[in-house]
Amino acid sequence: MQKNKGFTLIELLVVIAIIGILASVVLASLNSARSKGADAAVKSNLANMRAQAEIFYDTGSTYAAVCDNTTMAAAQAAAVSAGGNDGVCTESATGDAWAAWAGLKSDAALAWCVDSTGASKQVDNDPELTAISVCPAL
After folding, report:
1. 56 in a domain, yes or no?
2. Of 21, 27, 48, 49, whose CB count within 10 A is highest?
């Protein structure tokens, strides 16, 4: 008497279903990790802008035209690119203050803002930020 060895169709379908469920959980976690990584890149680029602005201030005792500095512009562009949203660097008319922000990837309604007072915080992703030179309260 010969006995067939192997898996039944039901057993194979159950295993494939379990693998599919596990794969979907992993992919959902991966997307979350990607957006968190992009947010970290936004924050890092803006933190580098703050350090660069202080170097700029040390050489001229003013923040006038700090946003036009090529290093600052490159960091701003990198932050905007990482976040996938918009962003702005602005300085006061008197050259005594500046602020920069870029939208966050994880939540399009939020942005990260840094300024000449040392602030580095989350703010609303609001176009009105373009008119100020300090990060507003959330």
Report:
1. yes
2. 49
Task: Tell me how many domains the chain contains.
Answer: 1
Convert the pLDDT of each residue in 54-89 to its tens digit: 999 999 899 999 999 999 999 999 999 998 888 889
Which residue range(s) make up the domain with 26? 9-131
* Predicted pLDDT of residue 40: 94
Let me know if residue 48 belongs to a domain: yes
User: Residue 91 is which amino acid?
Assistant: E
Contact in structure between 131 and 90 (CB atoms under 8 Å): yes
Stated pTM of the model = 0.77
Whether 75 is in a domain gets the answer yes
DSSP characters over the chain: -----S--HHHHHHHHHHHHHHHHHHHHHHHHHHHHHHHHHHHHHHHHHHHHHHHHHHHHS--TTGGGSHHHHHHHHHHHHHHTS-EEEEE-TTSS-EEEEEE-SS-TTEEEEEETTS-EEEEE--GGGGG-SSPPP-
4 versus 88: the higher-pLDDT residue is 88
